[in-house]
Amino acid sequence: MGLNRSRLRSSAPFHSKPLFRRHLQSMKYTYPQCFPLFYVIYLCWKCFFFFCVESTGDILLTFHRTRKIFGVSLSILLINLAAIMERADENLLPSVYKEVSEAFNAGPSDLGYLTFIRNFVQGLASPLAGVLVINYDRPTVLAIGTMCWALSTAAVGGSQQFHQVAMWRAVNGFGLAIVIPALQSFIADSYMDGVRGAGFGLLSLVGTLGGIGGGVVATVMAGQQFWGTPGWRCAFILMATLSSFIGLLVFLFVVDPRKTVSVNHDARINLERDELVEKGNGRVSSVWSESWMATKAVIKIPTFQIIVLQGIIGSLPWTAMVFFTMWFELIGFDHNSTAALLSLFAIGCAMGSFLGGVIADRLSQIYPHSGRIICAQFSAFMGIPFSLFLLKVIPQSVSSYYTFAITLFMMGLTISWNATAANGPMFAEVVPSKHRTMIYAFDRAFEGSFSSFAAPLVGILSEKMFGYDSKSIDPINGSPREAFALSRGLLSMMAIPFGLCCLCYTPLYKLFRRDRENVRLAAVKEEEMI
After folding, report:
1. What sign does the dihedral 510-511-513-517 (CA atoms) show?
2. Which of 71, 144, 253, 447 is 20 to 30 A from 174 in CA distance terms?
3. Which of 17, 3, 52, 5 has the alpha carbon at shortest distance from 274?
4. Which residues form the Major facilitator superfamily (MFS) profile domain (predicted)?
């Protein structure tokens, strides 16, 4: 797949217990007061990992030295597994909206606020990922974020009050805020420019498969009871357990491609993670100073500003789509049929994201300054006709099952290109490699914060403008009237933003070329100085 193997060299032997202690101690003393939640998670990791690392030393030593399974980089494999769990966790709550609505007597606007809270906190906390990655290697940051979202997911499954669910969704957003930018920058550093779209596409592909799995499992389990416990609660606890396990594997086995570089060109001696952590034990003031400089460097880039603007607008439809599960169930589809329809849409998105990345890679070789932008505009534009056809043209009846299925698959195949074909690869080309996590973090900060308003807006429009009434819903046969109202709210938050998103890419035909050239010249000057 064009993996940049030169950056994934073998490393020194793995000393699990001393390395583990240095990781945690450095976190403890660097951020003891600024982030209380971070310190609590530090204590959880200390207890959890000490037992696991001490009991599996010999096995870990063997795998850490090889770092490959069937010829595939172990780091890339585990990073993709983390992406699978991240997307599965994101799709968990929307898949059981109907059950949560009945359990807590909540309407669409209340459910929309749950998504709003998580996305808003995720957006505000995303810059923290850029700060942490400056001082620590990304596997440690990923593991902490994974533990955070696993804890909150389990807590949602055990919540008895709606406000408890809202609080833990905020904690979930904090964990995702740390994980997602670190994942994206890890992939950007692991692939070369000409195939970076395929790298992001593969990450999105496997992540979407995780979303499919999480959504299907939650939707199917939602209609059951296990040991007297509602199935949707069991689904949350199961997801939390799996996420914790993946976080453990990431912490123990993944090697940061940016930091495993040679310091002796003759002997090819590589820095290992323990030496890197020792470097991160400097004064807190220097960390914040470097973070502030990186922030200013990223925000003033015109390409970043344009992509963030389109991302804010373009994220609105995707955030609104969390109501698809509820909409199909209101039409009258059962849990299994709804899960199948949304799985087809997710499969289409997975294939489309990878296909879009590959096509953009090829097109960028022919048109290096505009190929990716063309792909992004095509994908955004296709959201308009598909939204209209899905929500307004197709009869809202269970007899339209196959029409819904084909439309959802084709829609997913064509509207999912932007992130992998353009946004992710272009971000990597307009900043130095050391600032990549920061640019992805601020992208998530701006997009997540503003797009989080889409979900409650769908609920408000459905209730206030189109007549949705949660009290008149038939829990068995659905409610065509409420389904129609919800579809109009969805259409309002999908078709128009897709069109504006397409137009927002236009200035990049001029700006992207200039920004990329500036980075190239800066890199040349830096090499000459060295």
Report:
1. positive
2. 253
3. 17
4. 75-510
259, 137 in Cβ contact below 8 A?
Answer: yes
Query: How many domains does the chain fold into?
Result: 1
What are the beta bridge partners of residue 478? 474
Cα gap 358→350, rounded to integer Å = 13
What is the chain's pLDDT, residue by residue, as a tens digit (530 residues)?
444 434 433 344 334 444 445 544 554 444 444 444 444 444 454 444 444 444 444 444 444 444 665 555 677 777 777 778 877 777 777 777 777 777 777 777 777 777 778 877 877 787 777 777 777 777 888 888 888 888 888 888 777 888 888 888 888 888 888 888 877 777 777 777 777 788 788 888 888 777 777 777 777 777 777 887 787 788 888 888 888 888 888 888 777 776 554 433 333 434 444 444 444 444 455 656 666 776 777 778 888 889 888 888 888 888 788 788 888 888 888 888 888 898 899 889 889 988 998 999 899 888 888 889 999 999 999 999 999 999 988 888 888 899 999 999 999 999 999 888 888 888 888 887 777 777 777 777 777 667 666 666 766 766 665 566 555 555 555 577 778 888 888 888 889 899 999 999 999 998 888 888 887 777 667 666 65
Q: Please check whether residue 10 lies inside any domain of the structure.
A: no
Token pair recorded at residue 139: 């596997």
Which of 378, 383, 381, 370 shows the shortest CA–CA distance to 426? Answer: 370
Q: Helices in 56-107 by DSSP H: which ranges? A: 57-66, 74-95, 97-104
Please report, to the nearest 10 degrees, the dihedral formed by the alpha carbons of residues 22, 24, 29, 33 taken in order: 170
Whose tokens are 């809270």? That residue is 117
The answer to whether residues 108 and 468 touch, using CB atoms and an 8 Å cutoff, is yes
How many C-beta neighbours within 10 Å does residue 288 have? 13
> Kind of pairing, strands 229-230 and 225-226?
antiparallel
Domain span holding position 442: 71-529
- Name residue 528's amino acid: E
CATH of the domain at 206: 1.20.1250.20
- Assigned domain for 378 exists: yes
pTM for the model stands at 0.68
Query: Could you tell me which residues are beta bridge partners of residue 3?
Result: 191
Q: 10 Å Cβ neighbour count for 114?
A: 26
Q: Give 431-476 as a DSSP string.
A: S-GGGHHHHHHHHHHHHHHHHTTHHHHHHHIIIIIS---GGG-BTT
Q: What is the Cα–Cα distance from 319 to 125, expressed in whole angstroms? A: 18
> Is there a domain that residue 296 lies in?
yes
8 Å CB contact between 129 and 178: yes
